[in-house]
């Protein structure tokens, strides 16, 4: 074991209780959309204590609305600040963004939780709570990595830029704002919940709405009408066929363990207004997955053409074509080369810390990595300690050991990527 690895591991072990207590403090703040100010204050205070240059600002909605990749369901961002902390390097090294979001999805039906969703309860080496795995645990790994280097007086050549952003869960406005403010770098790590797998590729997605039309009639003579509910079944079957075709094209081995690499999901259906009437309109809302190497515009065009083909399946759709709308949230796809130097550094340090080779896969969901890669020219890797299949679930939890493993791997990767300036500083002092 190298000296650096040994002292980093010992520091993390000695500061374990403090790290757990800090995570619990974050989890106990219900930082749902519009309620992020308190948790961001806690993060900012931590960054100030670490001696970083700290920038706190509320997003400029008017500026963001001008950007083609902006989306938010909100008109104002008052009370939802971004926080960025910069650890300046000595110069001559590569810079890195460490990007984490503090917004969490609502807890849902609390009756499905075994503990209060914001308790931060610790049982058998796991902490429970909304947002603990997605992704406050990952954020704590980043901060522990920075704090370890600071406490051990390990100096870096390149800058480390820590993003604590809002709005990831609803489209990435926080990260977009950080990019437009100039907080980009040579590469990035995003500690979303990957079970410590390395995700060099992330799918994108975009929301859509399909308005399926019928013809109203009395339910007693429904044969005089055309049921939009029945026609929506034809539409759903057509969407399912498109999903199959799009996924048959995916031959990337990183998707080999993912049953449906780029799903098309219908998540909301509304239709009809009276039990004794034939439904004349059904609204279907969903999201289309976008492959890492696919343009978001190309995915849109394919769905649009596929919907137009409904007229070849059922003459009704010639008379009353389905209306397709693009609305709401979108996440850009992203990818980093498998032989990128940051992939090499992260993989090497994973193997050193965990004594096994990392599992490298593609992300099953979108992240802010697409924005960083495509808009910020900051190639991004998703790698974090959270439990992938528990994001947004009741009884969300994280394995506490994984937080400290991730912190150790990331700390060592920062040294390799940014460059170790410790020896240079010691020589100058002599």
- Give the strand order of the largest sheet, numbering strands 1, 2, ... along the chain: 1-2-6-3-7-15
> What is the tally of helical segments?
14
CATH domain class name of the largest domain:
Alpha Beta
Sketch the topology as an H/E string, one letter per element. HHHEHEEEEHEHEEEHEEHHHEEHEHEEHH
CATH architecture of the largest domain: 3-Layer(aba) Sandwich
Q: How many individual β-strands?
A: 16
Q: What is the number of domains?
A: 2
* CATH fold descriptor of the largest domain: Aminopeptidase
Low-pLDDT segments, ≥5 res: none
Strand residue percentage: 15-25%
Report how far the terminal alpha carbons are from each other.
28 Å
* CATH homology superfamily name of the largest domain: Zn peptidases
- Structural class by SSE content: alpha/beta
For the biggest sheet, the summary is: 6 strands, mixed
**How helix-rich are the residues, as a percent range?**
25-40%
Shape: elongated
Rounded mean pLDDT score: 95
Rg from Cα: 24 Å
Describe what you observe in this structure.
The protein is α/β, with parallel strands linked by helices. It is 37% helix and 20% strand. It is built from 14 helices and 16 strands. The chain is elongated and about 85 Å long. The two termini are 28 Å apart.
Concise summary:
This protein has 430 residues and is of the alpha/beta class. It has helices spanning 3-14, 16-27, 37-49, 61-65, 132-151, 173-180, 228-248, 296-308, 310-313, 316-319, 341-354, 369-374, 400-418, 422-429, and strands spanning 53-58, 81-87, 96-101, 122-123, 126-128, 160-165, 188-190, 198-202, 204-213, 264-271, 281-290, 323-331, 334-335, 360-363, 380-382, 397-399. Helix 2 packs antiparallel against helix 5.
């Amino acid at each position: 074991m190298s000296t650096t690895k040994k002292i980093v591991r010992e520091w993390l072990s000695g500061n374990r209780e403090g790290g757990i207590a800090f995570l619990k403090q974050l989890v106990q703040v219900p930082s749902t959309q519009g309620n992020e100010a308190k948790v961001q204050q806690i993060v900012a205070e931590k960054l100030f204590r670490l001696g970083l240059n700290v920038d706190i600002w509320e997003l400029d909605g008017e500026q963001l609305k001008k950007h083609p990749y902006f989306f938010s369901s909100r008109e104002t961002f008052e009370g939802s600040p971004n926080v960025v902390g910069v650890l300046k390097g000595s110069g001559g090294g590569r810079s890195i963004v460490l990007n984490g979001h503090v917004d969490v999805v609502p807890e849902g039906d609390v009756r499905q939780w075994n503990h209060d969703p914001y308790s931060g309860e610790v049982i058998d080496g796991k902490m429970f709570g909304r947002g603990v795995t997605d992704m406050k645990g990952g954020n704590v790994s980043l901060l522990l990595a920075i704090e370890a280097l600071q406490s051990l007086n390990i100096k870096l050549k390149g800058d480390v830029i820590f993003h604590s952003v809002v709005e990831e869960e609803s489209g990435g406005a926080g990260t977009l704002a950080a990019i437009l403010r100039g907080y980009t770098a040579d590469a990035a790590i995003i500690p979303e919940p990957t079970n410590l797998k390395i995700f060099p590729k992330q799918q994108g997605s975009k929301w859509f709405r399909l308005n399926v039309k019928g013809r109203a009639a009395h339910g007693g003579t429904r044969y005089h009408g055309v049921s939009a509910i029945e026609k929506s079944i034809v539409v759903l079957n057509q969407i399912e066929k498109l999903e199959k075709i799009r996924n048959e094209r995916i031959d990337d081995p990183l998707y080999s363990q993912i049953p449906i690499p780029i799903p098309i999901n219908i998540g909301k259906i509304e239709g009809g207004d009276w039990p004794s009437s034939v439904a004349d309109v059904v609204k279907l809302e969903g999201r289309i997955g976008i492959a890492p190497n696919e343009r978001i515009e190309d995915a849109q065009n394919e769905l649009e053409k596929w919907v137009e083909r409904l007229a070849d399946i059922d003459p009704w759709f010639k008379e009353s074509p389905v209306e397709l709308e693009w609305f709401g949230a979108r996440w850009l796809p992203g990818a980093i080369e498998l032989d990128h130097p940051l992939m090499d550094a992260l993989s090497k340090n994973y193997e050193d810390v965990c004594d096994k080779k990392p599992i490298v896969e593609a992300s099953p969901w979108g992240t802010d990595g697409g924005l960083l890669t495509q808009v910020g020219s900051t190639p991004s890797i998703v790698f974090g300690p959270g439990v992938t299949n528990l994001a947004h679930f009741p009884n969300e939890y994280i394995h506490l050991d994984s937080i400290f493993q991730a912190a150790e791997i990331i700390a060592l990767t920062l040294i390799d990527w940014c460059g170790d300036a410790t020896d240079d500083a010691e020589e100058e002092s002599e």
